[in-house]
Amino acid sequence: MARKRKNWVVPAGMQPTEFDLRILSIQEKGYIVPTRQLVKTPEQIEGIRRAGEINTAILDMLEEKVREGMTTGEIDRLVAAFTERHGAVCAPLNYEGFPKHCCTSINEVVCHGIPSDEEELWDGDILNVDVTTIKDGYYADASRMFCIGHVEPKVKRLVDCARECLEIGMNAAQPWHFVGEIGKAIEKHARKDGFSVVRDLAGHGTGTQFHEDPEVDHYDTHEKGMLLVPGMVFTIEPMINMGTYEVFIDEEDGWTVVTEDEKPSAQWEHTFVMTDNGLEILTH
Ligand code: MF3
Ligand code: CO
Ligand code: CO
């Protein structure tokens, strides 16, 4: 039998605090607890908050600019220029070889769409723009949906349901409870509308790297997953599909994630910090 991971360690010579003892006692019972690195200091949280302010300003700027006829390549240039003017860096560029400054995902594209000058926004499209900003070494990650012109009511419902799923997931995450509550609550809500929840991609810890632990699944895994304690910073970013939850990756570019049945998908994302009273949004 595999030995249980001992994630939480009190450094030699340090007196365990009440906080340490509370985590250690949960770890002793066999639950997965965070490592010390995943619990951010107040200084780190302030840094992530500043990255979040720029990230939010970028998405607000896009709300003013995104319109029918524009290309996703233009959106990418707007994100790049705005980020640079604010003394920040676009995390996606060159991340594991990603070629652009943000992700733009239209209709049946679930996520990781690559901006292109060849790709125009049409009436009735739904678009996700996912922006991640690095400021002074700290990361904030968020995405929003943009409805172009007249979107079909059923598709609009998908977009709204995905936003509700993010809010419901946020409210399900409580300190000293487990990450698994998030996906359980989200899947229940998505199913009410007959929609499905993507399983192959998850939310994630963030803040001092782009992607950290824990993995934040958006569906019901029937597992508790990692303990959530105050100071942890992570995203929730449910991808909700009109049809099947199955997805595939475009072989040509190695990035674009598409629904298996080519029906539409919608996603909203925020970066949060866990507090004593639940999640606080850092990308508002
Ligand atoms: N921003 C995405 C997320 O929410 C990750 C994009 S990775 C990239 O985790 F390389 F495609 F940018
Ligand atoms: Co993310
Ligand atoms: Co993102």
Task: Give a written overview of the molecule.
- The protein is of the alpha+beta class and 284 residues long.
- The chain has a single domain (38-277), classed as Creatine Amidinohydrolase (Alpha-Beta Complex), CATH 3.90.230.
- Helices cover 29% and strands 23% of the residues.
- Strands 1, 2, 4 and 5 form a 4-stranded antiparallel sheet that branches.
- A hairpin with a 6-residue loop joins strand 7 (203-205) and strand 8.
- Helix 2 crosses helix 3 (72-85) and helix 4 runs antiparallel to helix 5 (180-192).
- The chain is globular and about 60 Å long.
- The mean pLDDT is 98.
- One cobalt (II) ion is lined by residues 130, 132, 141, 143, 237, 269.
Short descriptors:
284 residues, binds 2-amino-4-trifluoromethylsulfanyl-butyric acid, Creatine Amidinohydrolase, alpha+beta
Mean pLDDT: 98
What's the CATH H-level superfamily name? Creatinase/methionine aminopeptidase superfamily
How would you describe the shape? Answer: globular
Give the total of beta strands: 15
Main sheet specs = 4 strands, antiparallel
Level of helix content? 25-40%
Structural class: alpha+beta
Order of helices and strands: HHHEEEEEHHEEEEEEEEEE
- Predict the CATH topology: Creatine Amidinohydrolase
Query: Could you tell me how far the N terminus lies from the C terminus, measured between alpha carbons in angstroms?
Result: 44 Å
Number of domains: 1
List segments where confidence is low: pLDDT < 50 over at least 5 consecutive residues: none
Counting DSSP H or I runs of 4 or more residues, the number of helices is 5
**What compounds are bound to the protein?**
2-amino-4-trifluoromethylsulfanyl-butyric acid, cobalt (II) ion
CATH architecture: Alpha-Beta Complex
CATH class: Alpha Beta
As an assembly, this protein is single chain
Roughly how many Å is the radius of gyration? 19 Å
Q: Proportion of β residues?
A: 15-25%
